[in-house]
Amino acid sequence: MAYKPFHPPHIYDDNATYFITTCTFDGRPTLATDTHKRLCRDQLKEAVLHAPVQLYAWAVLRDHYHLLLLVKEGGDIGRFVRSVNGPTSRYLNELDGCAGRRVWRNYWDRFPRNAAEFWAYFNYIHIQPIKHGEVMPGQSGDVHAVLRTYEFSSYQYYLREYGEEWLTDLWTRYPIPDYLMMWDERTPLSD
After folding, report:
1. Alpha carbon 31 to chain centroid distance?
2. What CATH number is attached to the domain comprising 134?
3. pLDDT score, position 76
4. Which residue, among 113, 89, 86, 108, has the nearest Cα to 28 in the 3D structure?
5. Is 6 a domain residue?
6. I need a surface site. Which of 17, 46, 126, 157 has the fewest CB within 10 A?
7. In this predicted model, what pLDDT tens digit does every residue of 107-152 receive, in sequence order?
8. Is 106 helix (H, G, I), strand (E, B) or coil?
9. How far is 170 from 64, CA to CA, in rounded Å?
10. Which element (helix H / strand E) includes 120?
11. Would you say residue 156 lies in a domain?
12. What is the spatial distance between Cα 146 and Cα 134, in angstroms, rounded to a whole number?
């Protein structure tokens, strides 16, 4: 009997907040260049304009992306993810000359259960560029200075709109739990 990975059902609901992770197929660094990340970022922004969602936080990295969003109506996260991944796959394959290449794996979603968990996910998303080596903190260790340079997350928006003190306060009040910091390394997404 062949082993078949467990595929938990996706639960959809209106007016629900979701934390979503979508990885590239086989963990390939398909989004390694700024051009590739920009393409994914721009398609994400386009999809948000045409879907009943409110995007709270996002980050695009070389082999995955994270979203924190509110689904206002319809509850179909799958449809939204496909509206990002379908066009992005076509554009990336065209850019790389790899017609028919599989770009994305299935996505993983989770409901933040309370405000503290929402803000922990928010912080988790914004620290991802450092965690995955997209940017490196200098000797000063100034996280804000480093994240300020990364254009592929919503961090810059919050820095501009609310300031460094606000972001620091969120990190202090809502630390990222260890189980979440280890999530990417221990949880392969199923197809």
Report:
1. 13
2. 3.30.70.1290
3. 75
4. 89
5. no
6. 157
7. 888 889 999 999 999 999 999 999 999 998 776 678 888 999 999 9
8. strand
9. 24
10. helix 115-131
11. yes
12. 10
